[in-house]
Amino acid sequence: MADYTPPLRDIKFVLRHIVGIEDIVEYPGFEHVDLDTIDGALDEAGRFMSEVIAPTNRDGDEIGSVWMDGRVITPDSFKDAWRKYVETGWSAVTGPLEYGGHGFPDAVGFALSEMFVSANLAFSLNPMLTGSAITVIADHADDDLRSVYLEKLVTAEWTGTMVLTEPEAGSDVGALRTKAIPNDDGTYRINGSKIFITWGDHDLSDNVVHLVLARLPDAPPGTRGISLFLVPKMLVNDDGTIGASNHIETVSIEHKLGIHGSPTCVLAYEDSVGYLIGEPNRGMRYMFKMMNQARREVGLEGLGIADRAYQQALAYAIERRQGRAVGAPKTEQSPIIEHPDVRRMLMTMKAYNEAARGLLYDTAAAGERSHRHPDETGRAEGAARVALLTPVAKAWSTDLGVEMASIGVQVHGGVGYVEETGAAQHLRDARITPIYEGTNGIQAIDLVMRKVPMGDGAVVRSYLTEMAELAESLPSHTDPRIAAMGATLGEGVSALEEATEWLLATDDPNDRLAGATPYLEMFGTVAGGYYLARLALAASAEEPDPWYEAKIDTAAFYAAQLLPRASGLLPSVTAGASDLFAIPVDALGVSR
Amino acid sequence: MRIAVCVKQIPDPATPYDLDPVTHRVVRPNDQVLDDTDRFGVEVGLQLAEASEGTVTLFSMSPSGSLQGIRQALAMGADKAVIIDDENLAGSDALTTSRVLAAAIEREGFDLVIAGTESTDGYTGVVPQQIAELVDVPSLTFARKVEVTDGGIRIEQQTAGGYDVVEAPLPALLSVTSGVVEPRYPTFKGIMQAKKKPIDTLTAEDLGFSADQVGEAAAGQTITSVEPIPAREAGEIVEDDGEGYLKIVALLEQVKVI
Fold first, then answer.
1. What DSSP assignment string belongs to B41-53?
2. Active-site residues of A: which are they?
3. How many domains does chain A have?
4. Based on the domain organization, do A125 and A29 belong to the same domain?
């Protein structure tokens, strides 16, 4: 039940035609990287994720990570799988060469992450956060800290966390109160309580390396007074071995709707030794730099769950017989996949998933260009593009993740609502993704208030032009399915342009904020059509086979039936805030 | 210990593949994967080599294609591979396959030959024993457990009812069942190193076979026809009028399961 097949052909197709992996491996610094090794690595990693990680998904949900006597205990299957993960070295593929990594492109790491997420979302959060910790330490910590901690994190012998949230400091991180007092030896004493710390404690590795936001004495208020500290669970001796406990108490873990395998910890730091990362009061800046990476990874979680849900729903729909499809023999029940409504659900899942994969991998590619492209112009273009697309990639993909997992339950009918089937777990697991790493509301605000205005609208306009040009080129295509995509993509882009120009011309921030979420949805829906059209073009250039034909048909379905939804969102974007506030708060209540 | 492990590249069982309608041979795509049952032989070889500071050399007779399957075995840790790729070999029967592999293995030198019990695409199941005869060493077949003794190998040989303990001095041949050990997953480092490992490609002639000694010309067997698996027939529906269980009992007696 609930087997996972890594979508290797899709991933490789997107790496080639959206990411441009053939160009990326030519960048300086990737001299040791070749396409054959990437190909072989994806195959073996796919097998590993499907055979070793995916079977732990049910244990993670049913047994879960549990808190006992101040410690977190993971399911036994997690321990075995993690040991194999560390041994096979999949964690180290993109890590820095000088710290035990193999220095492969981020895009390759992104593909590995997708498969880990699909195999077991809750489990995948541990390496995901470790990856974020590696980025922060590599970019900002001094050589001493790097030499003690980086290699162990790169090899996944130790894991990392991001410790931001406090009870009164959630979306508003600036309100945090955890204190850092300088010691005489250059270290700091950390005191305070933190909540929602994903994989904040566990028994998979000897040490957990916390990156903790805290305030120095006399720090300025708000986000300008926050510093970043490395606080290990266990102190590390001079020879690199594990030393004494660093007095971090795991007070409890949360009982959550989903991702039960991932321990969400309440941590208390009691005179714990911390090491300052970078300069004082710059903690938020360092965190923000890492955040684009973390946000696209969370976007990927939306896709990963949706793909697993799709695979399960498809397998069920082929096998389950119920009712008689039009034209089927009277004596037998038809597989439900023969019913148009079920087919619609499956096509919707397939099309949105492939659209989201295009958007996510393009965002990752832009991130890669932003720091790897050989020339300054290329890096600047990458940086602008990744900044623009990140909130859309995060929010649109995770909203879809929930919706697709919900459709997955629906395809199963009544048994989908029964836990043993496993479809419900995907829905529960997916539900966190629009919330954490900046709620999707925050992403929409980021998009309309910060990203759309970048360069007075030049960044977003350049992306819109790119899409419009593609749409204009499609009607002359020899394949009528592709030619037909031009019209709806063109209409979608026009509507998005109109919405964008309205945002750029509107002064009242409340009016822009009111339109933020529908704008983001519109943006994602149009962009999805753009990527599917590009993939359809790539497929049409190949020797026809059923897989390439399906790519074109999927894009055609999306263009004809899903993309037109974008234009319908235009009135919601441009309505302003007045409708939302028309009813006074008192009158919103229910009357007896 | 010099360990020779026989491996085979086969079409990916996850994707349907075709038989040539005239020759009845498997149509071999460029990308073939390592036969899953071979992972056990490779793992046994690696464990024995690690314990004895020995080497593992892979032997395979097939069109090389992209060598994907061979690289998968090299990525697990084998040291090198010897491939016999020759269009004259097309249509070879099991005995010719054994002759060619045996010649390649003898040419390279060995203390132990390891094979699976049978390939997942051909299923003849006789190649390991034939190789043992041709290179004139004892064959220890269907091993479900392997241990090294002083100067020899002892195995638990799977039988229908349990197992026999069998041992032989080296050099010897060993065929292993799936489940004899847990095959390791290739490490990412292993995958990178696999690209740089030597792969020798030989022809039948290199091994002293003329064109008429191999391939279809020398085959002592031919596949005369291939039939698809018959479609599953519709089951019988028995209406339960309260005594349906009697009909079930009668049916079970009829097929002699009770």
1. HHHHHHHHHHHHT
2. 437
3. 3
4. yes
